[in-house]
Task: inverse folding
């Protein structure tokens, strides 16, 4: 029986096909190969070092530090030192990404799922590593979401517990009140579990013969498609 008070979601790869994001990053890499490579490495370095961060540096400025220095190890921060890299991030990565999300389409049935959740009296939250921009508006979901945040707001990337604890705080709920839905086992499921939150995994690419529960033991449930998740959620909510 479902006893949650909210269902919360990742966005990229969870609500819409991840190929949309990957194609954007691929174009960046083809047009600016060295910068594209540094940006892709930046997030791995960010996760590697984020537990050691002590300086209060805004998320995108810290990204600029890592892209420029090639490491997440903290160094003295001065905006002028990193301004050119910051501006390149804005013009080459986040500006095009912002335009892209104005026309991003969700998986079929996502809005219907959100409507069912709201009709059942549950809240809906969102936390994503990438900027929110106008994603929810572009996907036609903004009117159904009670609270949305991204790593820009907290300065950390999933699976760090700051991310989903921030979500819980702003929803006014405890860990056991929330079900989190994502497409990454390492980031979404492990991040949710570290914060004491149940999580399900969606859009898993695996052979039909694979034992998904054995492969992803921390997930409350695992689904290959959004449609599978939607049918499970509908049946679970009927049992309340």
Result:
């Amino acid at each position: 029986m479902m006893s949650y008070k909210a269902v919360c979601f990742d966005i990229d790869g969870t609500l819409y096909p991840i190929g949309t994001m990957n194609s954007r990053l691929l174009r960046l890499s083809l047009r600016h190969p060295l910068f594209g490579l540094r940006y892709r490495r930046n997030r791995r370095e960010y996760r590697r070092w984020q537990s050691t961060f002590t300086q209060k540096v805004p998320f995108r400025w810290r990204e600029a530090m890592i892209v420029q220095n090639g490491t997440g190890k903290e160094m003295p921060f001065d905006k002028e030192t990193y301004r050119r890299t910051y501006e390149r991030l804005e013009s080459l990565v986040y500006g095009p990404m912002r335009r892209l999300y104005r026309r991003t389409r969700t998986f079929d049935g996502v809005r219907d799922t959100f409507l069912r959740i709201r009709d059942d009296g549950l809240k809906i939250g969102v936390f994503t590593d990438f900027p929110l921009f106008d994603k929810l508006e572009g996907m036609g979901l903004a009117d159904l979401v009670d609270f949305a945040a991204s790593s820009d707001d907290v300065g950390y990337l999933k699976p760090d517990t700051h991310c989903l604890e921030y979500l819980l705080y702003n929803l006014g709920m405890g860990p056991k009140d929330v079900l989190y839905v994502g497409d990454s086992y390492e980031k979404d499921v492990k991040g949710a579990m570290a914060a004491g939150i149940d999580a399900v995994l969606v859009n898993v690419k695996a052979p039909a013969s694979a034992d998904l529960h054995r492969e992803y033991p921390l997930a409350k449930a695992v689904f290959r498609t959004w449609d599978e998740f939607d049918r499970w959620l509908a049946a679970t909510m009927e049992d309340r």
Remarks:
- The beta strands are 6-9, 123-128, 147-150, 178-182, 198-201, 221-222.
- The radius of gyration is 18 Å.
